[in-house]
Amino acid sequence: MSDVRSGALARLLTNPFTVLGLPPTASPAEIERQGQKLLAQLAAGKEAAAPYSSPVGLGQRTPDLVRWSIDQLRDPKRRFVHELWAGLPSR
Amino acid sequence: MINALPIIWLVWLIVRAINKRDGSPSRARRVGGTRSGNVLMRPISERAGFLFVWFAGELVVAAAIIALPRSPMVSASVLCAMTVVLLPWLLARGVLIPLGLMRPSAIAARLALWTFRNDSGEGASSLAAALALAHKRGSRERDAERLRARLAEPSRIPLRGSKIAAHAVLAAIGGDHARALCLFESIDSLHPLAGAGVARRLAARFRMADAASRRDWPALAAQAAAHRRLTRSAWFFGALAAWHRGRRSAWSALWVRLWWIVASGRRRNRELVAAAFAATAAADLALEQDAVGASEWPHSVLPPFDEALRSHAALARTPDGPGVGEAWRACATAWQRVFEDRASAEQAIERGKALGVQAPAQMLSAFGSLVRADLASDALRPGVSARDLSDGGPLGVWVASHLADEVLRDLDYRSGAIHERDRARKQVPIVDDWVELATIHSKIERSADRLGDLFVHSAFSCVHVRVSNHAARIYNLQEERAIANAVFRWLARYAERAGDGEALERYRKNLALGF
Amino acid sequence: MSGDSPLYVGIDLGTTNSAVATFDGDACTLVRNPAGSDLTPSVVRIDARGNVTVGARARRYLESDPANTRTEFKRLMGTAGGLPFPASAGIKTPEALSAAILESLRTDVREATGVDAGLAVIGVPALFELPQNRATAEAARLAGFTRVELIQEPVASALAAGWHDSDASGSWLVYDLGGGTFDASLLETRDGLLRVVAHDGDNFLGGRDFDNAILDWLLAQLSRHHGVALERSDPEVASAARGLKVAVEDARIELTRGVRVPINPAHPFVVLGRELGVDVVLDRETVEGLCTPIVARSIAVCRRLVAASGLEPGRLQRVVLVGGPTVMPLVRRMVRDAFDAPIVEGVDPMTLVARGAALFAATLDLNARPAHRSAPARTGDVPVWVYAPAVSADLTPFVVGRLADAEVSRRPVAVHVRRSDGGWSSPEVPIESDGTFTLEVKLAPRSTNMFALEGRAADGSSVSMTPGTFSIIHGVTIGDPPLSRTIGVALADDSVRTFFERGVPLPTTRTFVQHTVSTVVPGGDGVVIKIPIVQGEFGAAHLCRPVGSLEIRGNEIQATLPAGSTVEVTLALDRAGQLTARAHVPQTGRTFGHVEHLVLPDTRPDALEGFLKGLRDRLAGLQVSAFARRDTNSIGRLGDVERSLAEAAGDLAAAKGGDEDASQKLRRTLSELDAMIGEEEAALNWPEFAAETRDSIAAAASWASSRGTDAERRLLHEAVAAVRSALETRSVESVNRRMRAVIQLGNAAYFRHPRAWAMLLERAAGEIARASDVAEAKRIVANGRAADNSGDVDGVRAAVQALWRLLPPDVEANSQTYDSGLR
């Protein structure tokens, strides 16, 4: 992306929690299930599965993006940073 | 016959007067060149040859007017000859170039000594050919290749405004917008007499159109103000910039439309006008809806993260233009509050430990780096000014320093590459040399306002020795004096701003030698 | 295995032995070779007629015809050279030899199953570098495989060990000691997901080292007994000792059961023109004594891995041992004691990788059996696409389907699914307007679940669909393997632009915008822009290992590219870590994708010797400095480096003896030591540099406060803040860049002093002995002093400048920077 805004825009648009449509408190099992479901739906060409809402506008899911999101959230270090971007919930 | 003599004498006076305004001094040049200052004193050359044609043309016309019997055919022929000889550029611009006739345009431009003055000859004909090529319908590749090859041939005629503009037009035709913009921008740095008005106007229009396409309204407004006396298009772009910057009224809309009609390039500019009025409506709608498709966070976010994330999203959503500066400042101050809030840092670290992260404090610090990187990236957007950076608190100061460091490192490399080439005694085509020098100038210029005096100081210290040595080399050895002179001009400006008296004095001495 | 069930093939292409396994969805089966063994020795022989023999039959010739019988070529994968086979006058690359092994294994599968398998998963060491992975894929292609995926061996082992244990969760260590390589992997299982946390290992540590250690001991015994010097570094001795090595290996293996074994070479030991009798008994105590340091090295690697992952050693749930050498009681004992974790029993360490590779093939649905021909579709069957995971750890995974043909006469409006064992069926799920349906299925644990799909039309009648069935295996799912080494692009200032950090999940792609450093002129065949791709954890590019370079030639660009032109570099890694690279130059509108030299670097012994000597010299300098400063920490670290250099000298001797393996290992060791020494040098130099910087700042500030303008003082204040922040980054380059402004401002103030030039004149006069023309310099000094006496500042300045032209450049430079030592 040559857009000079790609940093902030991409970061909030492609946050894994946002892509998967899950809150940052989602458990690993929920993440796997949701990811597997989205991958199957995208593979089946279900159009309604592609668009998703984010704080910076509508995004479009692709199988690579969903797979990347699942992978990112499997690693505790990466998940921690993504939780911060997704908004640590208040107590 | 008796009446022809005063005409001839008048013409000769005019030519002398042109000569006197030529920046080239009448004293001898530093390097033992083959030319002296006065064009009439030069040995027979292309320029003298065409001047001869011009003279002869004048004589023929005058003789025809005076001596020949009048008839419609003769009058028409005489009129045509007059137009060609007296107003060649009008013919080229009005007829030959729009028809895409490269060779006739080039010939006509060569005759336009008055129009191009010190920038006439090969530069003028190249520019005319390039413009004709731009208007040509159908396949242009072969002609473009040929013209490129012609321009690449070694030439005794030094590089000046028109030839630079010709290279820029060719680059634009080839799709290399960045190179075209760099070359057009560089024309402004030449001595006023080293670049014909034609080239300058073309450059100004291109730059303003580019600023408009990037929605850089502050830059567009500045350029329009600077070029008002040069081209009518500046009035149109100025009105457009004012419209986008908030001056919206029925009268402003009319002003925009009026100047659109008067300015050149109406077809191209129609889209800008339509977009301006359409964008207003859409932007208003978007502001109301808070961006189409955007959603709030689905859960309650820990403060002050909530405010910071909201402002981060708002900054990402804000289109380039007037609102960006304020959005940037708000984002920087919101994140600064997050970095200073210990309670939320502790809660975040606790969460990290619960996830099994080995060093959560380190990851939190890495997160901070990402925030800074985003802010630095967004600080380059049109609409973010030096004031926004200084008002952005400690983060603003950090971003300014970071941006300065990036630019300084880039300048280091670029000037280093020039220095290495000099050491190895390698040469590249002069236009490429000029692109590199112009890029250095442009980088400093673009950042100077945003990053302040210290940056200018540092940038000048970084480049001036290598660049000035190189400029001296191309002046003395390659006789490319106009562009060397341009380099000394901006070096002198920066030397003054940086307070380096010794360097300033040196550059002033070089400038006094003229080109 | 029924003809209906899938066939997933997994291969362990080992240094010493290879194996192949198949998985049909229920059970993993090892495929036996014609000799009836699960293991096929990784040995290839080519006779004079060019006949290729593989496995145990080839191994018989290791002693008698070593020149034409090759083994342990796995470690040479990815290197440029080939191995000669004099009998057939041929040269074979390591890939070609591996292809021969793979072809043999493929034949075994065909014999056992009737399937000519074109798809398979092959295990590779986790720390295999990119050229080595590429070479493995190439070998598979030469062997006739149409599609091959690579899996890291420890991951395969963990998958095999944990397949039937999907309920367990926690961290576990895979300790994979093969014939030539050692891999340690830390894995985590949670909710049926197996994830690799991190890798470590040593590409030059394995059972071979045990045998070498024992062989060295044996040669020492024989030397003492026969009074002749026998060193393995002597090429003649090394060649003659091949037969002894085989005997040593056999004896070592026997000692896993016994306590004393005589060494019985199959052929007489003839060396240096003499036949030497071998009458040596090897006992377990001796073997354990010789092998303990080697095993200790492997345990140190494991400890490093566990520490780097932040896991306390006591928190390991279990350890899986993989590889033939791990059957040694010593290894099992030392590993168990080091980590206080139970060792997984009941698994065959020699075949775990092959089984795991077959299981992984199932997760990728790499079915080697030709597409199943179900009963031909009947008229009226509704075609449907079904998307279900091949393997699921989740007992209730989602299945999504889509009607393949929207225009059918009897379009179903709802579907439901029945499990073939009758244990479960789904409720009816409506088909949506876009023809898709999503439903959850319930799996029976730890088995292959077959499901039948049925549709219902609007009128309530049943609609049959094709394909009418699908299957899902309940087992362990596996996270994408992490990248084992950081990959980046080397930049002109010797730094590395990191594209992929170690540990990032694969596959992955990244693009960065870089800039050319010099002007590039078109024309000619030569390379004009080189983009080196390197692998390694070092910050300095020259310490990382180059794995390839993207090269753009002069005849590929049409116009001059000015310095600073942008180049968009994209690197992509697939799941196996295979790299593709491309560079897009916007100015030319072209994209270049030609990657050159994807081989491991050359390792000539003389170059390595020079490298080693250079490191010793630098180390000596650092040690002197550390002792002078009484820096005990540094002394300790440098002591470790010295010990490592001494060990490296041993590898140098072996490398000179023709041991290519030792050469590669030595090069790797020396690079690591180079980095360590570099860090010590930087740590030593930095305090001096920082102190000098502060002195320069103080001097500039002093001049600015006495002679500077308000504007200069303000700017200096900002400039000093910028230098301080650059000092925190510890980047010499960044500090020097910021210091220019400080020096400039200080100079501006300095030169306002009425005696500034006079002071410089005296300073320069003090260096007059270094002038190129001393007499002229004296004359200039005299003139300068005269000008000073008469108050002629310009005259003094002219004298100083003239004097500087006669003196070495540092004199002027130091004068401008208050005698600073900044470079």
Flag low-confidence runs of chain C: 815-823
Q: How many structural domains in the coordinates of chain C?
A: 4
Instruction: Output the CATH topology of the largest domain in chain C.
Output: Nucleotidyltransferase, domain 5
- Identify the overall geometry of chain C: globular
Summarize the structure in words:
The complex is a heterotrimer of chains A (91), B (515) and C (823). Chain A contains 5 helices and 2 strands, in the order αααββαα. Chain A has helices at residues 6-13, 16-20, 28-43, 63-74, 76-86; strands at residues 51-54, 57-60. In chain A, strand 1 (51-54) and strand 2 form a beta hairpin. In chain A, helix 3 (28-43) runs antiparallel to helix 4 (63-74). Chain A starts with 5 loop residues before the first helix and ends in a 5-residue tail after the last helix. In chain B, helix 2 (46-67) runs antiparallel to helix 3 and helix 22 (430-476) crosses helix 23 (481-498). Chain B is mainly alpha-helical and 515 residues long. Chain B has helices spanning 4-21, 46-67, 72-86, 88-96, 102-111, 113-116, 122-135, 141-152, 161-173, 177-187, 197-213, 217-226, 233-244, 250-262, 266-289, 305-317, 322-340, 342-355, 360-378, 386-390, 393-423, 430-476, 481-498, 501-512. With 823 residues, chain C is an alpha+beta fold. In chain C, strands 20, 21, 22, 23, 24, 25, 26 and 27 form an 8-stranded mixed beta sheet that branches. In chain C, strands 1, 2, 3, 4, 10 and 11 form a 6-stranded mixed beta sheet that branches. Chain C has a 5-stranded mixed beta sheet with strand order 19-12-13-14-28, sandwiched between helices. In chain C, strand 13 (182-190) and strand 14 form a beta hairpin. In chain C, helix 6 packs across helix 8, helix 6 (207-226) runs antiparallel to helix 9 (284-308) and helix 17 (756-765) packs parallel to helix 19. Classes of the chains: A mainly alpha (91), B mainly alpha (515), C alpha+beta (823). The interface between B and C is large, with 40 and 36 residues.
